[in-house]
Design brief:
- With about 475 residues, this protein is mainly α.
- Helices cover about 75% and strands about 0% of the residues.
- A two-stranded antiparallel sheet has the order 1-2.
- Helix 14 packs antiparallel against helix 15.
- The longest helix has about 50 residues, at about 405-455.
- The termini are close together.
- The model is unreliable at about 1-10 and about 470-475 (pLDDT under 50).
Length: about 475
C-alpha cells in the first residue's frame, strides 16, 4: 500500500493537488511556460511531417525500387503499429522514471529512425527504420500530451493541450505536402526521397538540444515525494527562469506532515500501473478507448482513402489532392476551435456536439456525394468534427487518472487510437469496394454514434484539479 498525498482528518493540511492548482492559478502563464511549450510543439510539428513522409516519398520509391501499393502500405502499417507499441511502452516507463527523461529519449529514437530511413540500402532496412520512427513518434506525442496537461492549471490546460493538435493535425498535416514539394525542388535526382527523411533528422537534433532546459513536471515530482524539487520548478515558472539557481524560493508547496513530523511519500514502484485496470479506473479506460478508437478510425479512413475515392470517380490525381487539401482545412479549424472550447465547455458536451456534427456530415457525404461541392463542404465539416473530438479526448485522457499512473492510462488510450487508425481503413476500403460512397460513409457516420454513447460514461473533469490519489492497494 502506498501513502496518499491527499489530506486526512489528522493531518490538517491542504491536499497536494489543491496546492499545485492554487500555485498554478497564482502564477498564470509566464515566459517560461511559453518557452517550454514552444520546445514541445516544435518536436510535435516535425513528428507530423514524419508521419506523412511515406506518403510524400511513396511515388518516388515505387518508381526507383519497383515496389507496389501493398509495400508502400506496409511501411505505414509498420509505423502505426510501432506508434501504438511506443505509446504503451512509454506509458509504463514515464510514470516510473519521469516525463522529461522520456521526452528526450523518444526524440532520440525518432531521430535515429529518420537517419536509418535516409541511409536505407533496401526496402527491408527502410521498413525497420519506419518501425523505429513510429516507436519514437508514439512515445513523443503521448509524453507531450501528459506534460502539457501537468504544467498548467484547469483554466489554461485545455488551450495548452489543444495546441498539440493545432500543431500536428492542423499545421503539420496541411504543410507536409508543401515540405515534400520544397525538398524535391531543392534536391532533384535519384536520392531526393532520402533528403525527405534526412532533413527530418536534423531538426530533431536541434529540438533535442533546446529541450535540455525543459524541467520535470511539478505534479510528477510531488507525487514521488520530491516536493522541494517541485516547489523549485514552480518558482522557475513564476520567475520565468528555466536555468540557473533559484535564490530565496517562495514556498508554494508544503510537505505532508503528521503532528509536525514529515510524512514520507513512497516513490512510484513496480506494479502501480495495475491501477488503470482497477474498479475505479477500468470503465474510464474502456469507454475512452472505444471513443478514441472510433474517432481515429474515421480520421485515418478519410485521410487515407479520400484521394483514391476521388480518382476512382473520375478526377485527375492533382485535382483529387487539391480537393483533399480543401477538406483537410477543416482539421486546422477543428483543432483551433477545440482548443478554445476546452476553456469554455465540459469535455463530454464538446465531444458529443462534435460527434453529432460528424455523423450528420458523414451521412450528407454518403447521400449527396454525387456533387463535388457538397463533398468538399461536408468533407471539411467531417474533418472539423473529427479533430474537435481527438483534441478534446487528448485533453480528457490525462485528466481521468492520478499522477502516478497518468502516463500509462493516457498512453493506453492514445495507443488504441493508433491501432484503430492503422487497421480500420482496411475495413472502410472493403466497404467502399462493395457498397460505394454510400456504404462507406454510412459506416463512418455510425462510428460517431458509438463515440457519442461511449463518451457519456467517464466522469466529467472540466474545471477540476487533476487527481492526485495514491492511497490504493496494488495487487
Amino acid at each position: 500500500m502506498t501513502m496518499s498525498q491527499q489530506s486526512g482528518p489528522s493531518t490538517g493540511r491542504v491536499p497536494m493537488a489543491d496546492q499545485i492548482e492554487t500555485a498554478y492559478d497564482r502564477i498564470g502563464v509566464t515566459g517560461a511556460h511559453k518557452h517550454v511549450v514552444l520546445m514541445i510543439l516544435l518536436g510535435v510539428f516535425f513528428d507530423a511531417l514524419e508521419q506523412n513522409a511515406v506518403g510524400i516519398t511513396g511515388p518516388v520509391l515505387q518508381e526507383q525500387w519497383g515496389i507496389g501499393g501493398a509495400e508502400i502500405g506496409f511501411l505505414n502499417t509498420m509505423t502505426f503499429t510501432a506508434t501504438a507499441l511506443g505509446r504503451v511502452a512509454t506509458g509504463l516507463i514515464v510514470d516510473k522514471f519521469g516525463r522529461r527523461n522520456m521526452l528526450l529519449i523518444n526524440l532520440i529514437i525518432f531521430a535515429g529512425g529518420s537517419l536509418l530511413c535516409a541511409l536505407a540500402p533496401s526496402y527491408a532496412v527502410l521498413a525497420i527504420g519506419r518501425f523505429i520512427v513510429g516507436f519514437g513518434l508514439g512515445g513523443e506525442i503521448a509524453v507531450a500530451v501528459i506534460m502539457m496537461a501537468e504544467y498548467f492549471s484547469a483554466r489554461h490546460r485545455g488551450p495548452a493541450v489543444g495546441l498539440i493538435n493545432i500543431t500536428a493535425a492542423g499545421l503539420g498535416n496541411m504543410l507536409a505536402p508543401a515540405f515534400g514539394i520544397l525538398v524535391f525542388a531543392l534536391f532533384p535526382g535519384d536520392d531526393q526521397w532520402r533528403w525527405v527523411f534526412g532533413l527530418l533528422f536534423l531538426p530533431a537534433l536541434m529540438v533535442l538540444w533546446f529541450r535540455r532546459n525543459v524541467p520535470e513536471t511539478p505534479r510528477y515530482l510531488a507525487a514521488n515525494g520530491r516536493v522541494h524539487e517541485a516547489n523549485i520548478v514552480i518558482n522557475r515558472f513564476a520567475r520565468g527562469q528555466l536555468r540557473g539557481p533559484i535564490n530565496a524560493p517562495e514556498q508554494f508547496l508544503t510537505e505532508p506532515t503528521v503532528n509536525g513530523v514529515p510524512l514520507p511519500i513512497e516513490p512510484s514502484r513496480r506494479g502501480l500501473w495495475k491501477m488503470v485496470f482497477n474498479k475505479k479506473y477500468l470503465l474510464r479506460t474502456v469507454f475512452l478507448v472505444i471513443a478514441v478508437g472510433m474517432s481515429y478510425a474515421a480520421q485515418i479512413s478519410m485521410l487515407t482513402l479520400m484521394p483514391f475515392i476521388l480518382v476512382s470517380t473520375g478526377y485527375e490525381l492533382n485535382q483529387s489532392l487539391w480537393f483533399t487539401l480543401i477538406m483537410q482545412s477543416g482539421s486546422l479549424l477543428g483543432a483551433v476551435s477545440a482548443s478554445y472550447l476546452a476553456s469554455k465547455l465540459p469535455r463530454k458536451k464538446v465531444t458529443t456536439m462534435a460527434a453529432t456534427l460528424g455523423c450528420a456530415s458523414g451521412l450528407c457525404i454518403a447521400f449527396l456525394g454525387s456533387d463535388i461541392v457538397f463533398v468538399l463542404i461536408f468533407g471539411a465539416l467531417f474533418n472539423f468534427a473529427i479533430i474537435v473530438q481527438n483534441t478534446t479526448i487528448w485533453l480528457f485522457a490525462p485528466e481521468l487518472y492520478p499522477t502516478r499512473v497518468r502516463g500509462f492510462g493516457t498512453s493506453i488510450i492514445l495507443a488504441a487510437g493508433s491501432l484503430s487508425g492503422g487497421l480500420f481503413p482496411l475495413v472502410a476500403g472493403a466497404v467502399f469496394d462493395s457498397h460505394g460512397l454510400v456504404g462507406m460513409f454510412s459506416v463512418l457516420a455510425g462510428l460517431f454514434v458509438i463515440i457519442a454513447i461511449a463518451i457519456q460514461f467517464p466522469p466529467e473533469t472540466f474545471g477540476k484539479p487533476m487527481e492526485e490519489e495514491e492511497l490504493v492497494d496494488v495487487v
